[in-house]
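Take one record.
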Amino acid sequence: MSTVDIRPLLPAPALIDDLAALLVEIVADGGSVGFMHPLDNAHARAFWTSTLQAAAHGQRIVFGAFEDDRLVATVSLLLDCPPNQPHRAEIAKMMTLPRWRGRGIAAALLRSAEAAAVERGKTLLVLDTASEGGAAGLYEKHGFTLTGEIPDFALKPHGGLTGTLLYWKRIGTERA
């Protein structure tokens, strides 16, 4: 197996094309990441253009996982929280292409996001994942605590409702 390279992403046309293709494939595969199937490339490109612009302004960090220079997974660390929540960050849009799952790539992305949060003085991470087909096992394996489930929270990409599971994790050494 080749080495996976994890790195923060910044706006670049070719990268936006790769991110859009990844998002379209994840949604087509049933990934509950905020979009409905079929997702067209133009909407996927618009999402990533806006997301990477927010990253360029320090509002988030988007990490990409590359295997042999091919983008195979991504996760975002949201840093732009309200003024009364400067101590926390949120994990969002964890996506791994189906044929690359089970290789530890999502875990590596999660570790990178957590390390970046700690470097920025964050002491609490939060996230949510779909009740059906989400990554609850991954998050629990990495120390996240389940707070609860909100039923019928969102539509699944191919229709029907799914709940969302809410998780949190204390990080770093300081406590707010």
Notes: Residues 13-28 form the longest helix (16 residues). The helical segments are 13-28, 41-56, 105-119, 136-141.
